[in-house]
Design goal:
Shape: globular
Strand content: 5-15%
Length: 198
């Protein structure tokens, strides 16, 4: 298994990770920002304690397990995009913890996300993390789930959801609860779910 020293991880602070999007985008997941491990291996949600890919697999959104700890392979990326899935972040710069981001960074990221959504036109956007969503979009009372009231400038035809953050630091969620939430937004986006075919 790949591992990094603290000094090695710290060297990736403030670096960025490219968006993972392609043609036929149906469901865009939005992370808060890259963690240091994610920046090191250039793969979103890559920390070994992160439950994003196990939850997608358990929910039937993807059918082949992805072990991102060493970085997604070209085949992993191609299969992910071919399923109509994509990933971006609200804030670009890598930090050890999301709470290192300022409110203004999150608000700038929210404005940039609206432009990104207008450009790529997914059917559904799923923001992973209610706290960052509330700060970025200035919605202090927002609840998880589908957002009925869309932010100013958001394209009406694109559904906006807030789903649980898969970080290992989010003790309120399990792989099973994350899988259910991610399968729900995938269905809303018109993505075929493997578990529906059993």
């Amino acid at each position: 298994m790949v591992s990094f020293t603290k000094a090695e991880l710290d060297s990736y602070r403030d670096s960025t990770v490219p968006d993972l999007v392609g043609p036929g985008l149906r469901l865009l997941f939005v992370g808060i920002n890259p963690g240091l491990w994610t920046a090191a291996v250039q793969t979103h949600f890559a920390h070994p304690a992160n439950r994003f890919y196990p939850a997608l697999c358990a929910g039937g959104v993807i059918t082949a397990p992805i072990d991102p700890r060493t970085g997604m392979t070209a085949e992993d990326r191609a299969a992910f995009v071919a399923q109509g899935l994509g990933i971006t972040n609200l804030a670009r710069r890598a930090t050890a913890r999301a709470d290192e981001l300022s409110r203004e960074e999150l608000r700038e990221g929210a404005r940039a996300l609206i432009d990104f959504v207008i450009e790529h036109q997914p059917a559904v956007v799923a923001m992973a993390g209610i706290t960052a969503f509330r700060s970025g979009f200035d919605r202090p009372r927002a609840a998880a789930g589908r957002q009925v009231e869309l932010p100013a400038g958001w394209p009406d035809q694109v559904q906006l959801w807030v789903v649980p953050n898969p970080s290992g630091l989010n003790a309120h969620e399990s792989v099973a609860s994350l899988a259910a939430a991610y399968a729900e937004v995938a269905r809303a986006a018109g993505i075929s779910i493997a578990t529906d075919q059993d």
